[in-house]
Specification:
single chain, 218 residues, alpha/beta, Rossmann fold, five-stranded parallel beta sheet, 5 helices, globular, disordered N terminus, PyrR, EC 2.4.2.9, glycosyltransferase, transcription regulation, PRTase_dom
Length: 218
């Protein structure tokens, strides 16, 4: 979701990846996808990149552009909205529905690489797998993420990880992307100690940090 790119209020922020770091990291993931899927060989299988809104979509397009640059192979890119497949719809609000766009020919028999910005609890990816099941039968499903911040609640692991960032549950990892935020950056936000306590209105002040929550994936 687009935002002004400013750090979250009420917390200490540290930039973990600069714009140059993000570019190098995405390029490395592209090379890894090429190697693992044998895209540059005669033995390659059809590969499709599906970005999970919002951050995964521009990442998927960048990966496809880099793969074409490195191999001249054109990899189809689509979008997979998983909102209605989440198991926590009743417990917290979610962004508006985004369109799901599947490349012509569908996913049957293809290697589908799901692309997201941050891997956290694994629930978003579980929802993505459920969504894929209703779309077709991929030969293989892989996962590429820019950041893995740990704290998995489901047995899900990424095939391609840009950076592993150890975090506490009270911290936020914010991925800013040029296409959505006018800059590339990965920021770690530590909560203000005062925000961890219930405020006078009876609500948890840390939960009101809408700036960070727009970018926190799970």
């Amino acid at each position: 979701m687009k935002n002004d790119g400013s750090p979250a209020e009420g917390g200490e922020s540290t930039e973990l990846l600069t714009s140059a770091d993000v570019s190098r990291t995405i390029a490395r993931i592209a090379h890894q996808i090429i190697e693992k899927t044998a895209l540059d060989s005669d033995a390659s299988r059809p590969v499709i990149l599906l970005g999970i809104p919002s951050g995964g979509v521009p990442l998927a397009h960048r990966l496809a552009e880099l793969i074409q640059k490195f191999t001249t192979v054109t990899v189809p890119v689509g979008t997979l909205d998983v909102t209605l497949y989440r198991d926590d719809l009743r417990h917290k609000p979610h962004r508006a529905l985004q369109p799901t766009t599947i490349p012509r020919g569908g996913i049957d028999g293809a290697v589908v690489v799901l692309v997201d910005d941050v891997l956290f609890s694994g629930r978003t990816i579980r929802a993505a797998l459920d969504a894929l099941r209703d779309i077709g039968r991929a030969e293989e499903v892989q996962l590429a993420v820019l950041v893995d911040r740990g704290h998995r609640q489901l047995p899900i692991r990424a095939d391609y990880v840009g950076k592993n960032i150890p975090t506490s549950r009270s911290e936020d990892v914010v991925c800013l992307l040029e296409e959505l935020d006018n800059k590339d950056s990965v920021i770690l936000i530590r909560p203000d100690e005062s925000a961890e306590h219930t405020n006078s209105s009876g609500t948890d002040a840390s939960s009101s940090n809408t700036r960070a929550s727009e970018h926190v994936r799970d």
